[in-house]
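Now for a specimen:

…
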Amino acid sequence: MHKKSGIEGEGSYKGTAEYNRRTADFIKKGKVGKAAKDAERAMESDEANELKSAEDKGKAGDPRGMGKTHH
């Protein structure tokens, strides 16, 4: 009998299902509006430059600022 390793590869069905469940739960609980307002306040605060820098690093494939990019 062949034992499964539990590794699903690049596309994880279990991970996708869990993400979808948590996202639906977040929406049902009405947390989207509060999260949007919190984000808006953060972008208007003193930390806006830091947040923008982190966003740029993430978009470049370098969220930790390690100088690595993925294209």
